[in-house]
Records
---
Amino acid sequence: MQSSVSPLGAAVPSILVDGLPASHALATPDGWVEAGDLEPGDPVFTFEQGEMPVAAVFRSAQARNVPPAFWPVLLPTGAMDNDHPVELLPAQMVMLESEWAEDAYGEAFVMVPALALLGWNGITRRPPREVEIVHLQFDTPQVVFAGRCLLLGCGGTGAMAANLFRAQGLMTLGLKEARQLVAGLIAEGERARFLPPDQAAPPYAAFAPAPLL
């Protein structure tokens, strides 16, 4: 676990707010590979630039005893076409596609913090567990496939390793704007329940790599 020093000199744990669980698999040319098994130089499929090598990998430990404001966000099975529950840290950036975003920002694809997803498709929070968290960096910020419809932001290196994810050509929303967008998606989802099944295709199906398992 990374730690910092308090004014009184006592070591205190750093609270992680982004990064990927080491056990979460990402799409690569070699199949779905757990994030914790990736090393610098390994290729990973990205949303806009295809196959890109990982530039750097950092590993941390998620502490169990953190304030509720920093608890992970839980995506239940099916929330974003995921076939198993997914746990994301609150500031982990997630890609959404929405007509609401296109109308408001001129971009259909936007990046939002996982925290903004609360209340949509059964997404909630749960107490953290002691798990390894992996921080992948590319030469420039990238969006990686963590599932067919689950795309996550990974930072760049050097000057591109800022706290706020910024990828060229992608709109990044702050928490307030992202919450407003998700509120629209929640309302849209209530109406979508009455649409025929063939009108509810996964939003990223055309962009996802071919099945790799």
---
Amino acid sequence: MKILVLNGGSSSQKSCLYELNNVLPDRPLQPLWEAQIDWTHQQGIAELKVKTAKDDRLEDEFASDSREDAISRMLESLWRGKTQTINDLKEIDIVGHRVVHGGEDYQQSTLISADVKQAIARLSVFAPVHNPVNLEGIEAIEKNLGNVPQVAVFDTAFHAQLPPAAFVYPGPYEWLENGIRRYGFHGISHQYCARRAADILGQDLADLRLISCHLGNGCSLAAIRGGWSVDTTMGFTPLEGLMMGSRSGSIDPGILIHLLKQSDLTAEKLDGILNRNSGLKGISGVSSDLRQIGDAIVQGNQRAQLALDIYIHRLRAGIGAMLASLGGLDALIFTAGVGENSALVRAAACEAFGFIGLKLDGEKNQQSPLDRDIAAVDSAVRILVIHTQEDWEIARECWKLYH
């Protein structure tokens, strides 16, 4: 069966095509076809990059104000031209979509119906940057592929078994009754990494206590017991928790009250400050990209150094909180852009946890390892660097629903 995966971001659109048989493989398969659209470099211009398993490649730029039209253009590269991989779009059996917010109603991957689409739209108030984009992807597939089965794979679903003590905010009880609670995000990535960790360690996932550190432009931790998240750092929105690239993470809400009283700030301006002009970018004044901050530190930039120091401090504090929720730890996982590529961040995070017998092998850490254990031989806790593969996890969810 051929499974098409769509993973939409605020200014990008990724897609890939997998072919699976009747037996679900343990390891990720290479996609037959991969494509990405990027709108970040030029206003109204989409940059399309496509590659196939045979290493045929396509790069194109075109005027685009409509995600639906851009997806149609992307799909054309799947069935014609030098990156042609199939003869007809009807060969696609099922389409899986990453959907960021499933609310309380959708706690597992779900076949998309009119009701599910309405729910995704309704939940856009909780995820205004992502859910509308995910919905556009669903509608683009309806336009291009007709009635092919589509599956919503929710980022919040992996956290569906959080205990009430972890997901209820200590505000008025009416908040909970109105759906204001902690949901958690990055669930598709945390789920994949937990399963891959068990595979690397040769152990049953049900027996493991894991802390998964998804450290990219967005950052979150998950405490995983028995294959499910029992605590996490993101909450009602992806703004809570760790310091991130351009997001503040958790701050004293009294600051917001103070600012609203002292100035002419609107909700929109506050949103811009907290989501797009805080975190590493806000403190350093350099960038939301840790690599550029590292370059600035080498040049003696003290604000860049402060940004990194805060980032590490809050990461350690978050790991400590997850450790307390688990009551012990078998493996610490690093994943996503920073987690997979920054030896410095991994070393700094691990340094604080020698008291639980966690020991990093410095040489292995420097070797840019992926899907490897980089703990010292005598470490009481394993330390894993895992290349997260959300698209593959979405394809797996589609396969399971189809069978």
---
Amino acid sequence: MPSAAMPSPPREAPPSSLVASFHPAVVIHHTELQAPPSPRTHRALRRLQSAHSLGAAARPINQPSLISQQRRDLHRNGSPTRDLGHGAASRSPQRGRANSDATPPLAHYMNLAAAAKRSSLKKPVFSHGHLSLQQIIRDGPNDGDFVGALESARWKVVDEGIKSAEDGMSPLRIYVWLVLLDAPIMSTDEYLSLIHRGASPAYSKIRNDTFRTLTTDPLFRRRVSEASLIRLLNAIAWKLQDAKEDQRQSRPSSRQSSHPRESLTGSVSGHSQAKSSAGPEPGTYVQGMNVLAAPFLYAARSEAEAFVAFYSLLTRECPAYIRGAMDGVHRGLALVDKVLAIVDPKLSMYLTAKGLSAEIYAFPSVLTLCACTPPLPEVLRLWDFLFAYGPHLNIVCIVAQLTIMRSQILQSPSPNKVLRSFPQLNADLVKSVTIGIIKKIPDDVYAEITMHAL
């Protein structure tokens, strides 16, 4: 693990070649909705050719995202591997190469980097390691090596970060997020069609949330209008509603029987079979999604880009956060308590003695992937890390923040006052502490973390 936080990357203006390299086949003519004050949003909506290559060509249609596939493969194998020795030699020749096979886990990367620093050796070598992150995203993989390009990109995101200005703005970030989230190509017209449907069933809930979104953050308020946030969330609500309708219509009707008892049992069994065949219940709009959507609108160069990235996160990486009674969030909160008890028993027992569980103080941090903790530029940098190695690691990031403020909590006779608002987010420090905590977590608990949001 690196002994110190990495320095902030220098500012760098977007090269003209980045715009010139856009593939004409994926250029989408942007229809102006209601642009936020920033001049950046007046640019036409474009998609990088390599984003299409990495996101679409690397996997068949309707397959789960790369991060999701890795989590599920680890869960299937029973124990996630976070050390050396899990690679090509352990793969079965009877099956295709899984993403979890191709991509060494995070702790493995960090161990390699720490060992290289201690021994003055070079950093780990990856197939696209000689290229900058911008080149990988702009030009795509060499010789069709999608997995190698993605592996190199993920490492560079953690090791070097995404170059951005002091306000967190970067011409590259949204495209890196789209690739890491494996977001599909979507036309602006599809987004506009959702907007033109008018108010969704969740519209009143949305209007009750949007005006309270990051009200103390001047950067967000200056760049993103409330109208833009309303449109995005309303479109998301329609999309989720459509998924519910599609599932309802796909359920086969149960066969009616003349015998009352037979009819009853047949109905129950038919409902159970229909439910299992249709898959998990789709999500719906929940309070807090406004804060979770905010960084996407801030980082994206159009509402349509923000929409497709946000929808991919909700439906592929953390669908249980917006499903039913938000079971995934509550599982995440229980895991915050469990991990804290493992890595810092004294702090855990102190909070328990004060009657403070994660359900009381960490609900917003779990639901919003720490987007509720300012400043926004640091949230963006933390999300770079989470999208590179899985949003499920947010659970460990929350524990990292608790250990960072450990002395303040232990010295306070009323720690609930301290925990009402976490200290200003420092993404590099949180990442460094998180990586250290990962090494202490037992395999079975780590497996729970990887799967809790699905």
